[in-house]
Write a structure and sequence with these properties.
The complex is a heterotrimer of chains A (271), B (405) and C (270).
Chain A: H1 2-26, E1 30-31, E2 38-39, H2 45-52, H3 54-88, H4 91-106, H5 109-120, H6 125-130, H7 142-167, H8 170-178, H9 183-212, H10 215-220, H11 227-235, H12 241-263
Antiparallel strand pairs in A: 1-2
Helix pairs in contact in A: 3-7, 3-9, 4-7, 7-9, 8-9, 9-12, 11-12
Chain B: H1 2-24, E1 59-64, H2 81-88, E2 91-96, H3 100-108, E3 114-117, H4 119-128, E4 131-132, E5 156-157, E6 160-161, E7 164-170, E8 172-176, E9 201-204, H5 210-220, H6 234-248, E10 251-255, H7 258-267, E11 272-275, H8 277-285, E12 290-293, E13 300-309, H9 315-325, H10 328-339, E14 341-342, H11 356-359, H12 365-370, E15 372-373, H13 393-404
Parallel strand pairs in B: 1-2, 1-3, 9-10, 9-11, 13-15
Antiparallel strand pairs in B: 3-13, 4-13, 5-6, 7-13, 7-14, 8-11, 8-12
Helix pairs in contact in B: 3-4, 5-6, 6-13, 7-8
Chain C: H1 5-32, H2 50-57, H3 59-89, H4 95-110, H5 113-127, H6 134-160, H7 163-170, H8 175-204, H9 207-212, H10 220-227, H11 234-259, H12 262-267
Helix pairs in contact in C: 1-11, 2-11, 3-6, 3-8, 3-10, 4-6, 6-8, 7-8, 8-11
Classes of the chains: A mainly alpha (271), B alpha/beta (405), C mainly alpha (270).
Chain lengths: 271, 405, 270
């Protein structure tokens, strides 16, 4: 077994964990702001700046908030569809629906975000649809970002919930009905608790993808900045790799904590 | 149990590997002798000067401001790269960047041979050892370059040129002629009066834009004592940041990709903001009703230099490009397309608009000196003050993140 | 069935609405690929096939497509091998070992792409001193694709139990022969489903790729990113996207057919 495990573990251990460790080490170094060269002087300045300067705290909480909001929105939207697909649709319809839900995943993420940019712009589709109601498109900004992120990750939430619901035997529903429960009660007290791990599994994706995203923000986010943008701007344009690495540890810590919390619910098996 | 032992061994091996890898971590360039004081007092690293030109290598990797190296992909009729390829035998790979920071970062990868560097990138490239000194004797067109562009603080160190001047110009104020009436004449349209176009203002997405705010304050609030928009002490920087934070409330989005600005103006999501002439021209080509003006306070701008990478894989083709792009015909093409003053004024006879060079003051050294060219701010105040510590580019970068909020 | 009429109708309505929302941007993309106006004004005033013609001849798009296919294929092969090895190895592992290994395998895909991209890019260029190339992209992609194969293999192995292999070995076949003649055929469709998802993940990946590709390599997403805003190229991008969506029905349908249930296979759920 050790022999079998060695290649993948070596790969992941060295290539990946090693890379993460190297990145963390970099965050403890300094940088010459004129030339952009890294100075191998041990310092906690990057972390100090990260925690003490207000704007970074604001951005962190904003990012966490949006990631949570996106997760909730997706879970709420995904559950009914998944339920329909798993328990109500005929097998043929079910297969078609699965394909229908999966197909958009193959359309490039960029193109979808860009399509939303067009839809949200002045005189775009949303403005056109909202005009009869006297409303206007939200334009570019955090609302648009949340909307687009929720849109992009929806299939990632639908699939695990669908798989989870599908596994629930029909007899469970019948038993609950026999014991006098109406549909709503059955859903609330029988289905939801059992499908919860699947919801959590989906949430790992939506949360993680939202936390690190910087592209959708640049396309529809207007002047908004999320944590991913801070990392990207510092790693790229600002050429401050140590600081970017320090900022990058925040999503890592959050996700590790999230995964640890989630392990209990057994959701990891559903990934 | 075998499993435990195997697991333990694997874990131990993994840990050792991790430690080894982490120990190496990130390396810095050993040859740098930079001190954080910057331009005025640094000794550039020892990068050899090319003595003579050899055979062209067959390809060249160009890192350029959008509009500087057009190869027909933006507009089929705009192409001066293909003639270069035919003439020199060097296949050109052009990559655009949006800000000087990106340029510095990309040159650091060592994958590019030549770069068109503005004043706020050139010294950083020299200091980091990523740009090589240029042997101007190897360039046929160097003699025709305007003398006021040679041996300046941003493109030379200790009388050694580190590049060949390309052209210079000012950042302009672009506005939608259908929406913005009457035509704006001052930068106040995007600062103090920005609320008039709330939600539709745009600005350049780079910390260097702070200098634009500083320039505005220099003219409108002289009590702050700003002499040079790139020499800001902490209080002056704070004032500029406050101005920008107020502006931020009315900004639709910041731009660094020039086409993103074109698109924003064409959909109407932005109606007024800072721009380059080329953007206005591309937008007008798309039938978007815009005009670009130089406001009464003057403007920040750029004076660009073609530099050659210290690790350039194709130095001979690199020199061939630098010579080509500073030749009169190419300079005329670029200057008219981008909308800037050419460095080689022999191009003035070849521009399709006979008055082009006059309109851009191409031979007017005094006018050229009035533009506040992009320069990297450093601790030693660039305006000569020695009693205060000025903010450096790291401070500006952080301030910029705060402005965007 | 146990769900009331009213509830079923509500669910159906909800599903229809959400599907409409999901597909509207895609319809907009397809429509825009015919939009004669390069700035995609809405509603489109004139339609044209010009962009489709341009796209068919676009060398940049074709080169990028080829690079993407190459990278995805290589990454899929590597992740198939590594994922299968890990899945097989963990079959009889103690619970602690299994969850630790599971965590490490899941990490590349659970951590935000920007962290993975930054870490790998840093490791390649500064720690190892390797310059970025197709090789580095493949390594990066394979790293986060392992989990999809691993999950599928684990799920399938759990469902199968070890009896058949036990029987095979009792009959005298060595471990390698057993794998070849007994285990592998049973795993085949799971591997196919995992491989397909891995391919799809790699094909559309943009963030990690941005960090691990050199300026000379353009995968399709990178090409799209660089051409999204260019007035001349943006419509071509729309065409490419439209084609991708339409073509994607094929592998998804295949995956469905082969593993009997696409969603379960795709999520590797047990």
């Amino acid at each position: 077994m050790g022999l079998l495990l060695a290649p993948p573990m070596l790969w992941l251990g060295v290539a990946y964990l090693g890379a993460l460790a190297a990145l963390f080490v970099t965050s403890l170094w300094g940088q010459n702001s004129f030339t952009g060269q890294i100075e191998r002087v041990w310092t906690l300045d990057n972390f100090r700046d990260l925690f003490s300067i207000e704007v970074y705290r604001t951005i962190t909480f904003r990012t966490l908030g949006i990631a949570a909001l996106v997760t909730v929105v997706d879970a709420v939207l995904a559950f009914p569809i998944a339920l329909y697909m798993a328990k109500v649709a005929s097998p043929r319809l079910r297969r078609l629906l699965v394909i229908a839900v999966l197909m958009p995943l193959w359309a490039s993420y960029l193109v979808k975000a860009y399509a939303w940019r067009g839809m949200l712009s002045e005189g775009g589709l949303i403005a056109w649809l909202a005009a009869p109601f006297g409303l206007d498109s939200p334009g570019y900004g955090l609302a648009a970002t949340t909307l687009v992120l929720a849109y992009l990750w929806l299939p990632y939430m639908i699939l695990p919930i669908y798989a989870g619901l599908e596994r629930l035997p029909d007899s469970l529903f019948e038993a609950s009905a026999d014991l006098g429960g109406r549909a709503a009660t059955t859903l609330r007290r029988v289905v939801l608790p059992m499908v919860f791990p699947a919801v959590v599994a989906g949430s790992v994706f939506t949360f993680s993808l939202s936390m690190g995203d910087y592209i959708a923000v640049r396309i529809v986010g207007g002047t908004g900045q999320l944590l991913g943008n801070v990392v990207y701007d510092n790693a790229g344009a600002a050429n401050n790799l140590p600081f970017a690495a320090a900022v990058a540890t925040v999503p890592v810590v959050v996700m590790l904590a999230y995964l640890a919390a989630v392990r209990r619910t057994g959701a990891l098996e559903n990934l | 149990m075998r499993t435990t032992t195997t697991q333990r061994l694997t874990a131990a091996a993994g840990a050792c590997l991790l430690a080894l890898v982490a120990g190496c971590g990130t390396s810095s360039d050993d040859e740098t002798t930079t001190d954080a004081d910057g331009a005025a007092a640094f000794t550039p690293p020892d990068v050899p000067l090319q003595k003579s030109l050899g055979e062209p290598e067959g390809r060249v990797s160009i890192l350029a401001w959008p509009g500087y190296a057009e190869d027909g992909s933006t507009d089929k009729s705009v192409d001066w790269v293909t003639p270069f390829e035919e003439q020199s035998g060097c296949q050109a790979d052009v990559k655009y960047f949006g800000t000087s920071d990106e340029a510095v970062k990309l040159m650091g990868t060592g994958e590019y041979d030549v770069v068109s560097a503005s004043g706020d990138a050139s010294l950083r490239l020299i200091a980091s050892g990523d740009a090589a000194p240029v042997n101007t004797d190897l360039l046929e067109n160097y003699g025709d370059i305007e003398s006021f562009l040679k041996d300046r603080a941003w493109n030379s160190v200790e009388d050694q040129m580190y590049g060949v001047p390309h052209g210079w110009g000012a950042n302009l104020l672009m506005y939608n002629t259908d929406v913005v009436k009457p035509a704006p004449t001052s930068w106040s349209a995007v600062f103090d009066d920005a609320s008039v176009y709330a939600g539709k203002v745009t600005a350049y997405d780079s910390p260097i834009y702070i200098a634009d705010a500083a320039l505005y304050l220099m003219k409108h609030r002289p009590e702050l004592g700003i002499e040079d928009p790139y020499a800001l002490d902490e209080d002056q920087l704070a004032a500029a940041v406050d101005l920008l934070k107020k502006q931020n409330e009315h900004v639709s989005e910041y731009w660094s990709d020039y086409l993103k600005e074109v698109q924003a103006f064409s959909t109407g999501d932005s109606v007024i903001g800072t721009t380059w002439e080329v953007i206005a021209q591309v937008a007008q080509g798309e039938d978007v009703p815009v005009e670009a003006v130089l406001p009464e306070e003057g403007s920040t701008g750029w004076s660009d230099t073609w530099m050659i990478g210290a690790d350039a894989a194709n130095p001979n083709c690199g020199y061939a490009w630098m010579d080509y792009i500073t030749s009169p015909k190419a300079q005329a093409a670029v200057a008219e397309y981008f909308g800037e003053a050419p460095a080689n004024t022999r191009a003035c006879e070849l521009t399709s608009d006979a008055k082009f060079c006059d309109a851009y003051h191409a031979t007017d050294a005094d006018y050229a000196d009035q533009i506040h060219y992009w320069t990297t701010p450093i601790e030693q105040c660039l305006d000569g003050r020695s009693d205060v510590r000025c903010t450096d580019y790291g401070d500006w970068t952080q301030a910029w993140t705060e402005v965007k909020g | 069935m146990r769900l009331s009429r009213g509830l079923r109708a509500t669910l159906l309505g909800f599903t229809v609405v959400v599907l409409v929302v999901i597909y509207t941007p895609l319809v907009v993309v397809v429509l825009n690929s015919f939009n004669a106006d390069r700035t995609f004004s809405w509603p489109p005033r004139r339609l044209t096939l010009h962009w489709w013609d341009l796209a068919a001849h676009s060398e940049g798009a074709r080169a990028a497509l080829w690079t993407s296919l190459e990278v995805a294929a290589l990454a899929t092969v590597i992740s198939l091998v590594l994922g299968t090895l890990a899945g097989l190895a963990l079959r009889r592992a103690r619970f602690f070992g299994r969850s630790v290994v599971s965590l490490v395998i899941v990490l590349p895909i659970a951590l935000p792409g920007i962290v993975t991209g930054l870490a790998l890019s840093n490791m390649f260029t500064t720690v190892l001193g390797v310059s970025l190339s197709i090789f580095t992209i493949v390594v990066a992609h394979a790293t986060f694709c392992i989990v999809t194969v691993f999950n599928n293999v684990q799920a399938r192995l759990q469902r199968l139990g070890g009896n058949l292999e036990q029987a095979s070995m009792d009959l005298g076949a060595g471990p390698f022969t057993t794998f070849r003649l007994v285990t592998f055929p049973m795993l085949r469709s799971a591997l196919l489903a995992g491989g397909l998802l891995s391919f799809g993940l790699s094909f559309d990946e943009i963030v990690v790729t941005t960090f691990t590709a050199s300026s000379r390599n353009q995968t399709l997403p990178i090409w799209i990113f660089q051409n999204l805003f260019r007035p001349n190229q943006a419509p071509v991008v729309n065409v490419v996207a439209a084609v991708l969506v339409l073509l994607s029905a094929v592998p998804i349908y295949l995956a469905q057919r082969l593993s009997g249930d696409a969603a379960e296979a795709m999520t590797g759920a047990r």
